[in-house]
UniProtKB/TrEMBL annotation:
<protein>
    <submittedName>
        <fullName>CoF synthetase</fullName>
    </submittedName>
</protein>
<dbReference type="InterPro" id="IPR053158">
    <property type="entry name" value="CapK_Type1_Caps_Biosynth"/>
</dbReference>
<dbReference type="InterPro" id="IPR042099">
    <property type="entry name" value="ANL_N_sf"/>
</dbReference>
Length: 428
């Protein structure tokens, strides 16, 4: 069957000079190289970014004598906001620019500009990594997120792109019952893209309804913005008969890394970014296997340069079987790092990977209030008779001298971003 949406997309791109196709071809060619050769191929692109920044940005003007990328300072959202006008390049440099804004998980606004070339690269990145998950242009996309006004597409554009804009705030049992009845009748190829917590909510609904695996021709499932726990991974693959992958991205940059089907490690988008992993407490490189801060240099944004940008997230890195550095774990915000009573960092996956032991709990959030003081907020389907066992189990991770309490709530509220935090560290 001819996919008219795909045909139309590439026809329009051809009229515009094949700008997306050329970027996509470049990405594919780069990933066909070995890691060293890829970096050599991207060196002129990095050089163009750095030279443009030092010659046209007041903030970076003092670095004209640079010898390498590491001569540039590490910046973060706060530094960019405070020096926005001095960092941002003249509009004439990047061939036009577009405003990109995010409220952030906690509601703190952040805005940058992206150049025309960056927007084209982002589109090509999206197509490339979607294809790797099994999605093709023109497939129906079930896009489940918080649809703030500045994200929501006009209805006609959503229809043209075949996107179902499903809002996490409107997902309830009544909606899902009707939705899945319609979904199983629609035999066109389709893919899921959603917050991991939204997928978890869907799985809980299907579990409660004792649903069998659904015959709805899902060929791609991508979880974004939050860590993907084992329960959600297994249940989504069971119900939709399709591998699920986790994507690491942000609004200001784009797709930084993504899992491939049936792999837990994250392939880093070396074609469009130079990624560093720096130590938690300094700007020195983290060792392989050591938890570190994700620092990104966006090779294609010639509007608001993102040079050595500290994303605020942490990860561990290793060398993959193809010789490329990859993320073995992406843990999320550095402000959400959990420590035990000895001050040692422990993975938030102690929650994700052990909740299957307590199926009567709908939602769980762990709050670290002081170094040895922890609070679990739990939403239970009924009476929770295993509180003592629950506390004793998690004290094995937190420390036997931990002060652990449990608070029962009817709902753990969503953040302004539409996500739901599993870990909250109030000591940072």
């Amino acid at each position: 069957m001819i996919n008219f949406r795909s045909e139309l997309f590439w026809l329009l791109d051809k009229v515009k000079g094949n700008v997306i196709r050329d970027n996509l071809k470049n990405i594919e060619e780069l990933f066909d190289l070995d890691y060293k050769l890829l970096q050599e191929q991207n060196q002129p692109v990095l050089g163009r970014l750095l030279d443009t920044a030092v010659n046209h940005s007041k903030f970076y003007g003092t670095y004209k004598g640079y010898e390498s990328l590491q001569d540039f300072p590490v910046v973060n959202k706060s530094i960019i906001k405070q020096n926005f006008d001095e960092i941002t390049l003249p509009e004439s440099i990047g061939g036009g620019r577009f405003s990109v804004s995010t409220s952030g998980s906690t509601g703190t606004p952040f805005k940058i500009y992206q150049s025309e070339g960056k927007r084209r690269r982002n589109t090509a990145d999206t197509i490339y990594f979607a294809m790797k998950s099994g999605f093709a242009i023109g497939d129906r996309l079930l896009y489940l997120r918080l649809w703030a006004a500045y994200y929501k597409k006009p209805e006609i554009l959503a229809w043209i792109q075949n996107v179902d804009q499903l809002d996490v705030e409107e997902i309830n049992d009544t909606f899902l019952e009707s939705f899945f009845k319609k979904l199983t009748k629609d035999k066109q190829r389709k893919g899921w893209l959603a917050y991991s917590s939204a997928f978890s909510k869907i799985c809980n609904y299907l579990d409660k309804g004792n649903y069998p695996p659904l015959d709805c021709n899902v060929t791609s499932i991508i979880a974004m913005s939050e860590s993907l726990d084992l329960y959600t991974r297994e249940k989504m693959e069971y119900y939709f008969k399709c591998p699920i992958v986790s994507r690491y991205s942000n609004v200001e940059n784009g797709i930084i890394a993504q899992q491939m089907p049936n792999r837990k490690e994250f392939d880093i988008n070396w074609a469009s970014y130079y990624v560093e992993l720096l130590k938690i407490d300094s700007d020195d490189p983290a060792d392989m296997g050591e938890l570190g801060r994700i620092v990104v240099t966006d090779l294609f944004n010639l509007a608001t340069p993102m040079i050595r940008y500290d994303t605020g997230d942490v990860a561990t890195m290793k060398i993959g079987p193809n010789g490329f550095p990859e993320f073995s774990l992406v843990q999320g915000r550095i402000t959400d790092i959990l420590t035990n009573t000895k001050g040692e960092i422990i993975s938030h996956f102690i929650i994700h990977t052990n909740l299957y032991r307590y199926p009567e709990l709908e939602q769980v959030q762990l709050i670290q209030r002081k170094n040895k003081n922890y609070l679990f907020k739990v939403n239970s389907t009924g009476r929770f008779d295993r509180e003592g066992e629950f506390i004793a189990f998690f004290k094995e991770y937190l420390g036997e001298d931990a002060h652990v309490s449990v608070e029962y709530v009817s709902e753990i509220p969503l953040l302004k971003s539409g996500k739901r935090k599993i870990i909250v560290n109030e000591t940072t």
